[in-house]
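Researcher: I'm preparing a figure for a lab meeting and need a structural model of a single chain. I don't have an experimental structure, so a prediction will have to do for now. The sequence is pasted below. Please return the structure as tokens so I can convert it later.
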Amino acid sequence: MKKGTNISRAHHRRETDHLGSLDLPADAYYGLQTARALENFPVSSRPVHPQLLHGLFTVKKAAALTHLKLGSFPEPVARAIAEVCDELLAGNYSAQFPVDALQGGAGTSTNMNVNEVIANLAALRLGGRCGDYSLVHPLDHVNRHQSTNDVYPAALRIAAIGLVRRVSAAFASLQETLQEKEQEFAGVLKLGRTELMDALPMTAGQGFGAYAKAIARDRWRLYKAEERLREISIGGTAIGTGLNAPPKYTYYMTDFLQELTGYGLARSEYPMDQTQNMDVFVEVSGLLKTAAVNLLKITGDLRLLASGPAGGLGELELPPVQAGSSMMPGKWNPVIAEMAGQAAMKVIANDTAVTLAAAGGQLELNAFTPLIADSLLESLDILARAVELLDERCVRGIQANAGRCRQMLENSTALATALVGHIGYERSAEVALRARRENITVRQAVLESGLLSLEQIDRILSTEEVTRPGTPGC
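Model: Understood. Here is the structure written out token by token.
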């Protein structure tokens, strides 16, 4: 609730803590700590990432089931908490989590927002009312044996694993599409380029094959990244020593979290490490940055190869998906590739935020974990969506302009390189210079020189010969 908000006394309730009292909307399921966070952190106008909240709901449900098993507090209370968590996991009451993504306190405001909503909804189930925590208390019940400092990082790891799997699947699909294009364009001979200058002949398919190899590495790296995220510090409480968390609670929590998520989560052998150190998230973010670098390079290539079409390279045709100009009729732009490139840039920028936030942690806690969570989960989210859209709405529909590819190759002097093994470097250079000077093809220049027969030239300059290892025509 922002400062200065006027609430009619007929439509509010008052809650009090050791800092004083605040009026809350009567229909709000969150409580006083959430209201204070709304006053303190009106920063980005962006709420906490839904997957992080999903992870927290999962942790709270596991805790309720654990307390039910341990008999920590009355069974109806534990069951009510678990049932409310199920509703939250189903997507209900999402408007009750308005705390800004960028907040002080290492995530305490988000944890308390979740605790308060669960407590109030559970109390209503048991015949109580919002704001009366005598039946279900946010801390004594929902947060029993927990600290934000073990709950929040565990929820972040759970959230990240789910999104890593989606990103990995998106890259796997893109890899498959690129491999299909490799086969489809295997017979399209074109000009290769180095430093944007004419280089050696290649096939359009070979270019897509190289893209597929890069994406395959990204897919594998991201798939393996999940291993780093599976270790959780639940039971470590405030600084990793486990104070106020019985060993049985920790073991049961891990078991229930494995069951609820389907992930191979493991209890940390040294929870203080995970409370202090955020390097695992830096590693995952770094892998996302690596993938983003490849994505940015590939989408840049696609835009360049499809440029023009009359005034550019025009070797590829990207599928048109929308009008490209409000002024120029008949124009369309490579907007899907541009979108994916921007997503890649954002991921690279987010990696810097994750790096700085992780390095900024001090002693037994990293106060900047909310920035790590916001940046990392955003990167995972937008990278998955961008790659899915690039695959579906761009790469699958790419066509190669075989005529244009052949024309540009024949008009260059690149084919002269294939002659070196037969007539030597100096004579090949003379052929290339003559072709350029007289504005004729290398094929015509070498034929008119009498150095090779037409049959030899056709064999040397065939697609199969000039695009494989070895001396062409031998």
